[in-house]
Amino acid sequence: MNSENFSISEKIVSPSYIRQGSQARRSHEQLIRLLLEQGKCPEEGWSESTIELFLNELAVMDSNNFLGNCGVGEREGRVASSLVARRHYRLIHGIGRSGDIAAIQPKATGSSLLNKLTNSVVLDILKLSGVRSVTSCFVVPMATGMSLTLCFLTLRHKRPKGRYIIWPRIDQKSCFKAMITAGFEPVVVENILEGDELRTDMEAVERKVQELGAENILCIHSTTSCFAPRVPDRLEELATMSAKYDIPHVVNNAYGVQSSKCMHLIQQGARVGRIDAFVQSLDKNFMVPVGGAIIAGFNESFIQEISRMYPGRASASPSLDVLITLLTLGASGYRKLLAEQKEMYTYLAQELKRLAAAHGERLLHTPHNPISLAMSLDGLQTQSGKSVTQLGSMLFTRQVSGARVVALGNKQMVSGHMFSGFMSHSEAYPHPYLNAASAVGITRDDVTLCIKRLDKCLKSLRKESSFCVTNAICLYRFTLISYPMSV
């Protein structure tokens, strides 16, 4: 309804009522105008009716929704199922063109506008979360691992001699496979144990740089968010080293946007040294379906190079999901979620510490990890470690998802590389342990229920272990009495 249609409507319904309806419509349009003018996440979240009005306005700008459109090409935004069309708000053309994921589509003005606005709003959120000097970003319809691969492939053109990627070890398969898939050789640098924490061995990293030669190294691939007892890499020192040897630096910031500490490390690293790109997941940081990531950096031209490296058009679903989510939350809503994440981290740490003490264990001291916590399981460790792994199975069958149990001595082959002590980020970590994470969106009820079920599982395992020991003693005594000579 435009002003002309409202004027005509006054001839049908009382003008005072029409004016009231027109004012209500203008309040929605005012919010949309501010978004278009500023390109920032609104301070207060929008209502669903405003968001749907906005998306419908975008959809009618795409050629597949033109009245009387005659499409004779091979890709005309045709959809067989009306359910699928509604699921995507009839934004069918996706984003980008065959040569650039950020390019404007002549046939899809609405989808192109959606893409540009999403990237702008996400950039604003990255700044709000702590990386104030970030200059460019784009949403890519791939999860973190493939997005890292895209970054490495872009660097290949800038460093044709680059063969190796220096990688402080983190036992997570996708980031390792990202390097292999891109055709490079990961150089795994073992972490060093400082107290309970596993930290970056800066001396070992520098030795590898000098041994391999800076010109033969594609980049340093560091990590922020990770499972305790590993903690975020020493980003400032790594960024300084990258600048010193003129080696690119790519940061895996998978679920670090929700952590002010992780984002501060990236900001400081870029300030004192070199960070070329940092990659983060959409689902882990913004509570949307899996399938998207944000590639961001401090050099706009390099981030544009990465976007141009993406072959073909791309799905608009991740961009649509995150834009809807951020418009719903608003900047204030997202800040509230970040504050709640910190509160829940403290509460989870308190509850795990209390539970650990009750079972003769302890909460491992990992103050540099702002999201993940670890509780020792020394009392469950046997020669085979079966009690430790059994705990993981028990928790899963009792609907405790996300808890991660790590036994000693695991070995795992990943893309031709053997990792000793796999899942513990170390060849010889001294304790088996259980991980739990205070990620964005976790509630107090989640923590309380997890602790209650974990307590029951630990009691059950210890009771079972005590029963086995008692039986073994009784069997030994029976054998001693019945067959003294054989004993």
UniProtKB/TrEMBL annotation:
Lineage per the UniProt record: Eukaryota, Metazoa, Chordata, Craniata, Vertebrata
Pathway the protein takes part in: Aminoacyl-tRNA biosynthesis; selenocysteinyl-tRNA(Sec) biosynthesis; selenocysteinyl-tRNA(Sec) from L-seryl-tRNA(Sec) (archaeal/eukaryal route): step 2/2
Protein name: O-phosphoseryl-tRNA(Sec) selenium transferase
Cofactor: pyridoxal 5'-phosphate
A biological-process GO annotation: conversion of seryl-tRNAsec to selenocys-tRNAsec
Function: Converts O-phosphoseryl-tRNA(Sec) to selenocysteinyl-tRNA(Sec) required for selenoprotein biosynthesis.
EC number per UniProt: 2.9.1.2
Catalytic activity, as annotated: O-phospho-L-seryl-tRNA(Sec) + selenophosphate + H2O = L-selenocysteinyl-tRNA(Sec) + 2 phosphate
